[in-house]
Amino acid sequence: MSLPIYTCSEPITDPEVLASIEALPTEDDLPCDDGEPIETPRHRDQMNLLIDSLELHWSDRTGYYVGGNMFVHYDPENKRHSRGPDFFLVLNVEDRERKSWVVWREGMRFPDVIIELLSDNTRTEDEGPKKTLYAELFRTAEYYLYDPYSQSFTGYQLRGGRYVEIEADAEERIYSEMTGLYLGVRENWLRWITPDGEVVASAAERAEQAQQQAEQAQQRAEQAQQRADQAEQRAMQADERASQAEQLLEAYRRRFGNLE
């Protein structure tokens, strides 16, 4: 029995469909790793940066799943029909760890956002067959293509069942309606950017910022202590000068006290 594709607003309630889903393979039965390493260390770092910074930014938010370089299984009749987006986001789903994304075990939910990191080996696939699959079957609302080396960046939104390219704004950012954030290239990396224009920091960047703030606080404390020490020294010098003046005045009085 083939399973119908449901949108996120259509929960599965048909008992026959639900029973069929229960009999299908789970993530424990399906492959979760194709054994192929990600293209380059830069591709890996870019993928992790997108995932980690978004998760940190949404640390107080629940009901979403973000993954990368893991299988999205979309055909219960063929295990080999899967894709491994470099980055994908699914909204309004259960919070739990997953080995892979199995759409028939997720209420037939497909990714809402996909980002593919281009390389010489994957460019043709990412710009052709994958783009068609993500639009026509996955119905992924937003699809982005980014080359970590040339920094070329293109975004698409799903409109009328096909992808339409999104123009970047004056600050070379593309707005993601699914996340409420922008995507843009900053210092040769694709970054999430808040509506206020702030780059969403990674854990490493937050740690570095915290270290810098701690060092600055330490410097301010040391400078304040130096100013306090200098003030104390000036007070001691003033006391010493006052004491010397008093001693001179006393000596003057002893010497010339009978001249009146």
TrEMBL record:
Coiled-coil regions listed:
none
Name it.
Putative restriction endonuclease domain-containing protein
Renumbered to this chain, region (Disordered) spans: 209-243
Matching PANTHER family: SLR1095 PROTEIN, SLR1612 PROTEIN
User: Where does the Putative restriction endonuclease domain start and stop, copy by copy?
Assistant: 26-176
Low complexity biased stretches: 209-228
Instruction: Quote the InterPro entries the UniProt record gives.
Output: Nuclease_put_TT1808 (IPR012296), Restrct_endonuc-II-like (IPR011335), Uma2 (IPR008538)
Biased composition (Basic and acidic residues) is annotated at 229-243
